[in-house]
Specification:
Blueprint: E1 6-11, E2 14-19, H1 30-45, E3 51-56, H2 67-76, H3 83-98, E4 102-107, E5 110-112, H4 114-119, E6 124-128, E7 132-134, H5 148-156, H6 158-167, E8 170-172, H7 173-178, E9 184-186, H8 191-203, H9 207-221, H10 225-241, H11 244-254
Parallel strand pairs: 2-3, 3-4, 4-6, 5-7, 6-9
Antiparallel strand pairs: 1-2, 7-8
Helix pairs in contact: 1-3, 2-11, 3-10, 5-6
């Protein structure tokens, strides 16, 4: 597979997947998702890969969905069907949790919507001090996808997860660390250095034990994750996408005004 939106390299047992589509801040679109799925499969099957790092070459980790695409489709009168995108974005998060190799997400700048939940799917999250995690879906009349509701509920509990998802407020790196979502916070200038330091430590560790440990944690915490993605997340997001509130949220965002939701 040819990779247009990601750079892939393996050095000293560490596979680096670098999202590199700055023109829309690494939006989680079908091309990006399909490339990530393919690359994660490559990492899983390659015995030379001991640890996986997912990071960004853009000024932000990922802005989430491609709102400009939605906006143009709405004004063109076209149907917006995101079933495949939602399904495959969920598969990326699920694959990160199920694969037998440790996954580090190295996060800088904004990680919004699906981009936030991609970041939080890592086994270890290393965040620059300028990071903002944003469950931005609600501002568009949507609900979280890419596992967001599930991952947050498991990590920080119902009340805080509900607050973050229902308000869409930005959460800084230090708050995320205090909540247990982030392993390490460092100055943005040191992000690559600190990420690679952790990756090298894990790559030198007991890989069979790490694989088994991930299997234990999956069974203990994520056994019903796939069911949630297909039966809980995808159907509810489909309902929201078909609403007038979604159209209003997208238009308001692109037109830089406050949305006027009608509840339909």
């Amino acid at each position: 597979m040819e990779y247009r939106k990601n750079i892939y390299e393996v050095n000293d047992g560490i596979a680096s997947i670098t999202m590199n589509w700055p023109k829309n801040l690494n939006a989680i679109d079908m091309d990006m998702v399909n490339e990530l799925l393919s690359l994660l499969d490559t990492c899983e099957s390659d015995p030379a890969v001991k640890v996986v790092v997912i990071k960004s070459a853009a000024k932000s980790f990922s802005a989430g969905g491609d709102i400009g695409y939605f906006y143009n489709n709405i004004h063109a009168g076209g149907e917006i069907n995101m079933d495949d995108l939602i399904e495959n974005a969920g598969k990326v998060s699920l694959k990160m949790k199920k694969m037998g190799k440790m996954v580090i997400t190295s996060v800088n700048g904004a990680a919004a919507g699906a981009g936030a939940n991609l970041a939080l799917s890592g086994d270890f999250v290393v965040a620059a001090d300028n990071v903002k995690f944003i469950q931005a879906f609600i501002n568009l009349g949507l609900v979280p996808d890419t596992g967001g509701t599930y991952l947050l509920s498991k990590s920080v509990g119902f009340a805080r997860a509900m607050e973050l998802c229902a308000t869409g407020r930005p959460m800084g790196a230090e708050e995320a660390k205090e909540l247990g979502l982030v392993y390490q916070v460092c100055p943005k200038e040191e992000l690559d250095e600190q990420t690679m330091k952790l990756a090298k430590k894990l790559a030198a560790g007991p890989l069979v034990a790490y694989k088994s440990l991930k299997q234990q944690f999956f069974e203990a915490n994520f056994r019903d994750y796939e069911r949630y993605l297909t039966e809980g997340e995808a159907p509810t997001q489909r309902v929201c996408i078909s609403s007038e509130d979604f159209k209003e949220g997208v238009c308001a965002f692109m037109e830089k005004r406050k949305p006027e939701f009608k509840g339909n």
